[in-house]
Every structure is written in C-alpha cells, then in structure tokens.
Design brief:
It is a single chain. The chain has 3 domains: about 170 residues, Beta-Lactamase (2-Layer Sandwich); about 60 residues, Helix Hairpins, CATH 1.10.287; about 160 residues, Histidine kinase-like ATPase, C-terminal domain (Heat Shock Protein 90, 2-Layer Sandwich). The chain has 12 helices and 13 strands. About 50% of the residues lie in helices and about 20% in strands. The chain is α+β, with helices and mostly antiparallel strands. A hairpin with a 3-residue loop joins β12 and β13. It binds adenosine-5'-diphosphate (ADP) and magnesium ion.
Length: about 425
C-alpha cells in the first residue's frame, strides 16, 4: 500500500493503525490548555482520519445562542461553511436530538425525525460528516468534515468507528477545557462581587487616600506662624495645600456618587439617545486629543428599563477612561449599540466602547474594578481616583446587567455593557 501524505505531523495515516491514531490523538490533546490550539488540532485530526479535504469546528456561543466557527482547516473550509450556525439550525438541532455522527451516506430511513433538513444542510455545505460534541447534556460544539477523497473499501469500514473514537476524545478534551475556563471566569466574578460589597474596603481606602493630603495641610498650618514673612514659602505651600484640598473634595464627591448609586430608579429609556448625549459630553475632550469618535447605533434597539442618570454616569466614566487611555498621540474611539438574544430567549441591549489606547496590562485586568485602583497620577489633568469603574460595576450590578472587558496592551480596550430589556 502506498503511504498517503500526512497533514498532521507525527500522525499515522488513516488506513494504517487506527489504534495508534487514537492513542496519539489523546496524548497530543492532553497538554493543550489553549482553546484555539485544541480546536486546530481536533479539526485537523478529524479531517485527516476521514481523508476530508476541509473541516470546520463550531463552538457554542452561549451568549448569542449560536455556534460560531472557531477553527478551520483545508482550502475552502471558510467559504463552504457559514461563520455561525443558529442554535435552532437543523444541523445542531439534529445532532442535539440524536447525539450521533451524521454522515452524508446515512440512509433516508435513519433520518426520520429532524433528519431530512439536517441532511440537506450537510449536503449544501459539501459536508461528509457532522460530528456532535456533547458536554453535560449540552451540545458544546460540532465538527463539519467535508469532501472526502474516494477511499478503499477497507478504509470505508474503518472510518466510522475511528471517527467515533476520535470524536469522543475530542469532545472530552473540549468539555474539560471549556468547563475549566468557565470556572475560572466565575471565580474571578465572585471575587470581584465580594470586594464590591465590602464597605470596609471603601472606608479603608478613603482613609488611606486622604492621609497624604491631610499631612501636607497639617504641616503647612504648623509651619505657617513662624514662616509667615517668607513669601516664597507661603506662595509655594499654599499652592500645594490648595491642590490637596481639591483632591479631598474630589474624593468625597466620588464616595458620595458611589453611595448614592445603590438603588436605581428605573424608567423606560432609549439607549441610542442616551449614548448620543454621553458622546456629546466628551466631544470637546476628544477633539482636543485628536480622538475621532465613530458611533454606530442599531436602528431596531428595544427600549430598556434603566436609571438614566446612573447609566449616563457609567457611559461617561467609560468614555473618559477611553480618551485618557488614548493619551495625546490621537486615536479612535468606537461606540456601538446592538441587540442581543440570550440562549434563554431573553433580549438584552449591548453597548460597546472600544478605544485604540494603551490597553490594560494582564496583571491589572483583575484589579481595575477595585476601589482606588488607578494607574493614573494623583494630580494633573488625568487625575485618577480609581473609583470610576467601581461605580460603573456597582451600577451595572444594580441593573442586573453585565460588564466585560477585553484588552490588548498597545492595541486598545473594549468595554461591553449589556442590560436586560425588562418588561415595562
Ligand atoms: N479604556 C481603558 N484603557 C486602558 N486602561 C483603562 C481603561 N479604562 C480603565 N483603565 C484602567 O483602569 C484603571 C481604573 O479606572 P477607573 O476606576 O475609572 O479609575 P481612574 O480613571 O480614576 O484611574 C485606570 O487607572 C486604568 O489603569
Ligand atoms: Mg476613570
């Protein structure tokens, strides 16, 4: 038998020893902790084992209730398969109902219930197999393998059990990794929530923050009687002291903002309108920094029950942070609204604020919502108190919404705020 060219390194060919392929596959997947690398390896191996020219791995996007194409292999994979499959698309629906690999060669009799549509969908995407990946009763993903080369009768009988074994290993690896990522995320969220609740943190932080300016004010008052005839001293020190007083005032205002924002008064509001007025608010600041603002508002946005003042505060805090992050070299600030349908069928509205600023260091990401966490200087134009995002987080929580952040150092940051559309 002539050896077939190998697509994946270290992998025996399909017609050689299936057991070796399976063991090798399991060993290769075990150390992978990056979902993208895992997905790549899975789709390449499944294609290789079935002699498919191309394949695409789709993963469940719970937030958008769809399956998103995450990894592809082969020349036409991206053109033959769509970027997303709705959760109620016949293909995932069929796989969810049967939890069996769907093959192009399945007899029509096998396709009784939801089958015929799924089979047609598979054909339209030039797929030979659709492989379900199940985790805890959920279809967490599916692999689409297409355009298999003509194979020997021996390979034809070997392929289905080999594919089934590989699919099982792939599913286990995907499920484990996705679950551990979910766990990590929810732990981080819990930690954050706990910190928010702690009034002690706020009080302690406040005390710490005002101690320095107070010390300097005290020193001035102590020294002033004996230095009252030294105009340089009086002039210099009064300037410093005045700055300190402003700083304390500023902090008090922020603390008041924070405590006032505990209970929102909800009213039925137009989010696009709100976004527009907040963007106006930072127009001047943005202009002076050569920041161009791009605003994209979804035309079909449902109205949302929210506290207008509070959500304004959220958006302005995020917009000001974005402009601060861009600094003086100029950049772009993109504000976008959109409608979101959760897997439960509930409708949410999302607002994205994306900047081309300095980005957030990985180590800082988990601290940005902490009270008094700031990377900005204490004084000057971009004076930071580190309470902006704490307030933002608190308000969003009170609205039963969500806030997420994605950032890449030197590239930029996107904050996404989403709010449930509650019945009026
Ligand atoms: N868009 C952004 N780009 C980069 N860093 C950001 C952005 N938004 C917030 N940060 C980081 O989070 C920190 C905390 O933000 P915030 O709570 O608003 O406090 P402050 O703006 O007073 O520093 C900032 O100091 C900054 O390091
Ligand atoms: Mg801020």
């Amino acid at each position: 038998m002539t050896p077939q060219p190998s697509q994946t390194k270290n992998l025996p060919t399909a017609s050689s020893e299936p057991l070796k392929i399976v063991t090798q596959f399991a060993a290769d997947l075990a150390p992978l902790t990056d979902l993208n690398a895992l997905g790549d390896h899975i789709i390449q191996t499944l294609c290789h084992a079935t002699a498919a020219a191309q394949g695409a791995l789709f993963l469940l996007d719970r937030e958008h209730a769809c399956y998103r194409r995450a990894n592809v292999t082969g020349p036409d994979a991206a053109t033959l398969s769509p970027a997303t499959l709705a959760a109620n698309h016949p293909l995932p629906r069929h796989l969810l109902a049967t939890n069996r690999i769907l093959a192009e060669t399945d007899a029509p009799d096998d396709l009784q219930k939801t089958g015929p549509d799924a089979h047609a969908a598979l054909e339209s995407m030039h797929g030979a197999y659709a492989v379900p990946h199940f985790g805890k009763g959920r279809l967490i993903g599916l692999s689409l393998l297409g355009a298999t080369a003509a194979s020997s009768p021996e390979a034809q009988t070997q392929t289905p059990p080999l594919l089934a074994a590989l699919a099982q290993i792939a599913t286990n690896a995907l499920d484990t990794l996705i679950q551990s990522q979910d766990l990590h995320r929810s732990l981080a969220l819990n930690k954050r929530t706990d910190r928010m609740k702690s009034l002690e943190t706020i009080a302690g932080g406040f005390a710490h923050e005002i101690r320095n300016p107070l010390t300097s004010i005290k020193t001035f008052i102590q020294l002033a009687p004996e230095r009252k005839d030294d105009p340089d001293f009086i002039q210099e020190f009064s300037k410093i002291v005045l700055g300190d007083v402003y700083r304390i005032e500023h902090l008090i205002q922020k603390i008041l903002d924070y405590s006032r924002y505990m209970e929102p008064t909800l009213a039925d509001e137009d989010v696009n309108d709100l976004v527009t007025s907040c963007v106006h608010f930072i127009d001047v600041k943005a202009d002076s920094r050569k920041v161009t603002i791009e605003k994209t508002l979804a035309p079909d946005l449902p109205r949302v029950m929210l506290d207008r003042q509070q959500i304004k505060q959220v958006l302005i805090n995020l917009l000001v942070n974005a402009v601060d992050a861009i600094g003086t070299q100029g950049g772009r600030l993109r504000v976008q609204t959109g409608k979101l349908v959760k897997p439960t069928g509930k409708v949410w509205v999302q607002i994205d604020i994306e900047d081309t600023g300095e980005g957030i260091q990985e180590d800082n990401l988990e601290h940005i919502f902490d009270p008094f966490f700031t990377t900005k200087p204490e004084t000057g134009e971009h004076e930071g108190t580190g309470l902006g995002l704490t307030i933002v987080h608190q308000i969003i929580q009170e609205h039963h919404g969500e806030i997420r952040v994605k950032s890449s150092v030197g590239v930029g940051t996107t904050f996404s705020v989403s709010l449930p559309v509650l019945p009026a």
